[in-house]
Design brief:
Layout (H helix, E strand, L loop, with lengths): L1 H16 L26 H7 L6 E2 L3 E8 L2 E10 L2 E9 L6 H19 L4 E6 L12 H7 L2 E8 L3 E10 L2 E10 L3
Antiparallel strand pairs: 1-2, 2-3, 3-4, 4-8, 5-6, 6-7, 7-8
Helix pairs in contact: 3-4
């Protein structure tokens, strides 16, 4: 489980590093919730009360669960600062031999979020300096797993930034989506 917490935290840092820089609002929060059945600012106890399954790990600043998101096995992570929920997300845990399968999952999650929030504020493949000129289009998925490229899409809602990312290192792909409070 610590492996998944590390992956979740790595994904958070990566997403924040390459995150959305626009303030364009694309969709209001209509259900009063920010992530799953929670709202930003909730305490750990309040968040735990919203989940129907027991946590797989609980730390002072992180609670994790193992479940599914859009039919994909995932670790669900809730991150707290000063006792308040400020970020949460999913790290997809299914492994594939074929890197293109990760791109398929990325596209499925991008479509899900586009249906929910509208057109992304950004949607791109970002390259490590000098890497793109050496790589053919059909090799882009492997480039993401190798750490030479990052597939990214992001949405802004009234209270949240939603950031979807596919990236990797040493040939291992990591796919996740992070929801982050604008207020906290």
């Amino acid at each position: 489980m610590k492996k998944y917490i590390i992956i979740l935290l790595f994904t958070v840092v990566s997403i924040l590093t390459y995150g959305c820089s626009t303030d364009e609002k694309i969709n209001d929060k209509s259900d009063g919730l920010d992530f799953r059945n929670t709202s930003w600012g909730m305490t750990q106890e309040e968040v735990k009360a919203t989940e129907s399954i027991p946590p797989t790990d609980e730390q002072p600043t992180v609670i994790t669960y193992v479940s599914e998101f859009e039919g994909m096995p995932s670790v669900i992570g809730y991150l707290f600062e000063d006792g308040k929920l400020t970020r949460a997300g999913y790290v997809m845990t299914k492994s594939y031999e074929e890197p293109g399968m990760y791109v398929g999952d990325f596209n499925k999650l991008r479509d899900f979020h586009t249906t929910k929030y509208g057109k992304p504020a950004y949607d791109s493949v970002n390259w490590k300096e000098g890497a793109e000129s050496d790589i053919k289009t059909e090799a882009y998925p492997q480039a993401a797993c190798d750490g030479d490229a990052q597939y990214m899409a992001g949405w802004l809602t009234e209270g949240s930034m939603v950031k979807l990312m596919l990236h990797g290192r040493d040939g291992k792909c990591e796919l996740g989506v992070m929801y982050e409070s604008k207020q906290y």
